[in-house]
Protein: Cytochrome d ubiquinol oxidase subunit II
Organism: Agromyces agglutinans
Amino acid sequence: MDLAVVWFWIVAALFVGYFVLDGFDFGVGMSLPFLGKDDTDRRVLINTIGPVWDLNETWVIVAGASLFAAFPEWYATLFSGFYLALLLILLALIARGVSFEYRHQRPEAAWKRRFDWMIVVGSAVPALLWGVAFANIVQGVPLDAGHNYTGTLFDLLNPYALLGGLTTLLVFFTHGVVFASLKTDGDLRERARRLATRAGLLTIVVAAAFLVWTGLAYGTAWFWGFAALAALALVGAWLANVRGREGASFTLLAITIAATVLGLFSALFPDVMPASNDPANSLTIANASSSEYTLTVMTWVAVIFLPLILLYQGWTYWIFRKRVTRSAVEAAAH
């Protein structure tokens, strides 16, 4: 198989890893106003992702670096054309990371409240804008003959893209709330399960609308297959949550996200950045990829290091697999 095609799917897999892992981090962050009755509840929620959030976030760095090396033309068009949107994502991620480290540095309630809201906003903005960005990539954007984006930030905020953003926002929120129920106990666990049930219904409706719109406008046979898998997994996740099976629900939501991302990439294939104004200006796998030698070197690097990264991350999750309890958090404060 052509190495450029292989790397197209490797990039897709890296974004699957990022959205599955950092997606539930976003969801936990967004859940603070809904589940955090007091400071202890909020500390419990933050501690559920405390050991892993920064490790999860590195997947976007790996995905971006792989995109830069394997498809430099795609990277250049994407990061220049979507500059303001990606800058907002970066600033939100910085605010969220700073808040995790600073909220406990002073005892005042107002101090903690400000950083809690930075966590909420710093989680919601990327969750929304990543969906907007990927929906625009699939839909296509105006490009000139040099593959430069000729639109504005507001052109990216079209109805289809906003529906994509709302879909990722709700899916990540639901995934995060299910993770909170999986990692907590007592009343907080039960409230998280009930919230996931309510949020899950809205998520199913919005996600179904987005998948159907995408399929009718841009779908391929492969897309419809992935979309069906995503839909079945999402409904199954909701049913599992209703029955109190948080582990199964969390896993099925991860499958939902993975199938959706792979479906979007299959709808995109063989383009990487379609031009909505003139198909001749579109970026494809063939005209956006690096040389065969570069891709060969990258493949060997991926074969050696990607399994090591997966083993290390799996080990981290295993070490911190236990539930976070209010009593443990309260004891650590004294």
Q: What stands out?
A: The chain has a mean pLDDT of 93. Residues 3-332 form one domain.
